[in-house]
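Sequence, please.
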């Protein structure tokens, strides 16, 4: 019976070690794939952290298996010793093993807490970066608006009655519409930053498909904005082409009148 128990224990320990090796291989393969796809955007810091956490967890798994092997040997020794019928000796051995397992469990919990603290900190840092970036974008929009108006005033002073008021009004309306689109871009950034926080803190936080769907949803929103930017550019181009054609016709009419 003892030999069968040892064979069974060896079998499950080997299975667990194989599973651990497969997890490491899958982790490295996935990291290599993402590194190839993301290039300079690959998060090397997170990879190194996750890798170290996986190795430390594997070390705890190995220690748990070593404890199991150690106390199986101690039980064999106790069963073959003069104290093999001493119930107190068996209880003491069980309590000793339980204490060893509890110490390992505490190390597991500390590791889990360290991982959670790390990701909470990274999420907070990312949220802060997002807010700073959004605030900077809004400040840049306001600066561009002020620069536009200042340039218009300079040209109006220089050109006097020759200043193109119609062209100014058109460009101003186009600028405001572009700024509206850029504000919507910022709003989308804010919205999906919030959604990522919610997903990261929710039950699907480890669901890779949920993250991919969120990225795709944001990408579709950005693509819709890009189409509106393109339509706006086309409208501007058509306006100035029409103005240029009208100007060309007026010049031709003036030349014809002068020739007459």
């Amino acid at each position: 019976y003892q030999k069968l128990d040892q064979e069974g224990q060896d079998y499950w320990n080997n299975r667990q070690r194989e599973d651990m090796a497969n997890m490491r291989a899958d982790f490295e393969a996935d990291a290599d794939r993402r590194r190839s796809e993301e290039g300079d955007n690959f998060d090397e810091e997170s990879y190194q952290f996750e890798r170290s956490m996986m190795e430390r967890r594997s070390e705890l798994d190995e220690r748990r298996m070593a404890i199991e092997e150690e106390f199986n040997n101690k039980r064999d020794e106790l069963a073959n010793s003069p104290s093999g019928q001493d119930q107190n000796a068996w209880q003491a051995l069980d309590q000793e093993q339980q204490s060893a397992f509890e110490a390992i469990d505490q190390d597991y919990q500390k590791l889990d807490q360290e991982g959670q603290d790390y990701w909470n900190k990274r999420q907070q840092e990312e949220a802060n970066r997002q807010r700073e970036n959004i605030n900077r974008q809004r400040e840049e929009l306001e600066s561009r608006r002020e620069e536009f108006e200042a340039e218009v005033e300079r040209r109006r002073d220089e050109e006097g009655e020759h200043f193109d008021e119609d062209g100014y009004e058109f460009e101003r309306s186009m600028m405001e519409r572009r700024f509206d689109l850029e504000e919507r871009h910022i709003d989308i950034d804010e919205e999906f930053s919030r959604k990522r926080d919610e997903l990261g803190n929710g039950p699907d936080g480890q669901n890779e498909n949920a993250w991919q769907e969120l990225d795709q949803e944001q990408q579709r929103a950005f693509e819709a904005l890009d189409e509106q930017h393109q339509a706006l550019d086309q409208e501007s181009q058509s306006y100035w082409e029409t103005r240029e054609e009208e100007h060309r016709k007026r010049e031709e009419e003036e030349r014809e009148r002068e020739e007459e």
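The CA atoms of residues 134 and 186 lie 6 Å apart.
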